[in-house]
């Protein structure tokens, strides 16, 4: 029987709270504390094993360090490297944690608990504002004053990162449903939480996350049909899923408008928005910012190179606001060239293949979330992105080692 209130579980809980609910400096202090504990309990054999299992992401980090040698703006380059130090930090942290018999579902439960608190708090804040403003219609709750960025600002999180965090909680809840051997009441609770979290993502209006949510739920329904051979029940769920999803999309005002923006939308004031056209121009300008196809411009010169192209392509708003490329693959191509981009794609494929090999459906869905979100966002640039990604990649990949430890313990007990 594995205890719930263990030292390791408390560390995970503190990490989740500090990342999601507090400012970056507190999360950084928690990470430093976890690294210190890991160094105290350092074990070379465990270090070597974690190193070998995560070689591609560590090689990628080394490439970024090397790029400092030819980048012009060392100061900005060092700031970017500082954010990415979570990668070697995770190597040390999971050198310690991978040796511990940590129950996976305990970690998922703690994460879901923190996400639930965050979403309830955010809704409490916007509902309080809604009541304070004496709104005349409930439909106004889904306008810009209480949805999209206003909702994310309640805990100072960009909507992309907030929705990405919630997506992972939904993945865990779907796993709870698949493995649930208890009463139907638990399944009903999990379903209610999934619906609530899904509605929250719709209200955040993060289009890429809504698309990923659709894909993840669809994959889980297909997985259910194949494994349970419940064709009729699966077909009914599939139809209901599409009907409900479309109904929600059409009734959450700000989200409906944001999807209309993709194809071009003109407001009654005459203001026209076409996000697809804007993204295409932005990506075209960004892709042409690379001055060295093989090794790139260096990690510190990415933004300056992008701004030069924004000016050339007459993209005033991206130039004025120092927009990144809004595409992680292009971003790394500009900074690290084809070599860096190739290593980045390989590290994603490496984890994808590991999760396929070990039939880890959760890990597979996590890689899908990261890979697709990276198409429209530079989530590896910011603390809230890279810390979240690196931490879960190392943890999900270390789970196989935890299973081996558990199996060994069972065998040893049997011998006794």
UniProtKB/TrEMBL annotation:
Transmembrane segments: 52-70, 108-131, 159-177, 184-202, 208-226, 235-254, 332-354, 361-376, 382-399
Name the record gives this protein: O-antigen ligase
Naturally occurring in which organism (per UniProt): Postechiella marina
InterPro entries, sorted: WaaL-like
Keyword Membrane found: yes
PANTHER family given in the database record: LIPOPOLYSACCHARIDE BIOSYNTHESIS PROTEIN PA4999-RELATED (PTHR37422:SF13), TEICHURONIC ACID BIOSYNTHESIS PROTEIN TUAE (PTHR37422)
Lineage of origin: Bacteria, Pseudomonadati, Bacteroidota, Flavobacteriia, Flavobacteriales
Keywords annotated in UniProt: Membrane, Transmembrane, Transmembrane helix
């Amino acid at each position: 029987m594995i205890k719930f209130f263990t030292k390791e579980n408390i560390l995970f809980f503190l990490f989740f709270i500090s990342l999601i609910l507090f400012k970056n400096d507190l999360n950084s202090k928690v990470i430093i504390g976890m690294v210190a504990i890991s160094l105290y309990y350092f074990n070379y054999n465990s270090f070597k094993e974690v190193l070998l299992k995560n070689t591609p992401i560590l090689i990628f980090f080394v490439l970024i360090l090397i790029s400092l040698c030819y980048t012009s703006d060392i100061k900005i380059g060092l700031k970017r490297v500082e954010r990415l130090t979570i990668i070697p930090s995770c190597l040390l942290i999971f050198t310690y944690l991978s040796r511990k018999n940590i129950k996976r579902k305990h970690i998922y439960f703690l994460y879901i608990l923190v996400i639930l608190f965050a979403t309830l708090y955010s809704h409490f804040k916007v509902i309080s504002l809604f009541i304070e403003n004496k709104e005349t219609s409930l439909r106004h709750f889904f306008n810009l004053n209480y949805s999209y960025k206003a909702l994310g600002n309640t805990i100072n999180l960009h909507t992309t990162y907030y929705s990405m965090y919630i997506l992972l909680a939904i993945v865990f809840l779907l796993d709870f449903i698949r493995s649930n051997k208890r009463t139907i009441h638990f399944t009903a609770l999990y379903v209610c939480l999934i619906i609530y979290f899904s509605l929250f993502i719709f209200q955040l209006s993060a289009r890429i996350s809504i698309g990923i949510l659709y894909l993840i739920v669809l994959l889980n329904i297909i997985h259910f049909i194949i494994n349970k051979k419940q064709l009729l029940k699966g077909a009914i769920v599939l139809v209901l899923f599409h009907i409900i999803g479309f109904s929600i999309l059409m009734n959450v005002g700000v989200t409906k408008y944001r999807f209309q923006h993709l194809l071009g939308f003109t407001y009654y004031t005459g203001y026209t928005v076409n996000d697809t056209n804007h993204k295409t121009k932005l990506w075209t300008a960004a892709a042409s910012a690379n001055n060295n196809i093989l090794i790139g411009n260096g990690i510190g010169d990415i933004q300056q190179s992008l701004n030069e192209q924004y000016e050339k392509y007459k993209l005033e708003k991206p130039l004025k606001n120092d927009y990144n490329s809004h595409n992680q693959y292009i971003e790394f191509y500009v900074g690290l060239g084809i070599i860096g981009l190739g290593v980045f794609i390989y590290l994603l494929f490496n984890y994808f293949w590991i999760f396929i090999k070990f039939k880890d459906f959760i890990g597979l869905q996590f890689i899908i979330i990261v890979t697709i979100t990276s198409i429209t966002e530079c989530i590896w640039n910011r603390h809230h992105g890279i810390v979240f990604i690196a931490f879960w990649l190392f943890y999900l990949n270390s789970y196989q080692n935890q299973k081996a430890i558990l199996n060994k313990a069972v065998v040893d007990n049997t011998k006794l």
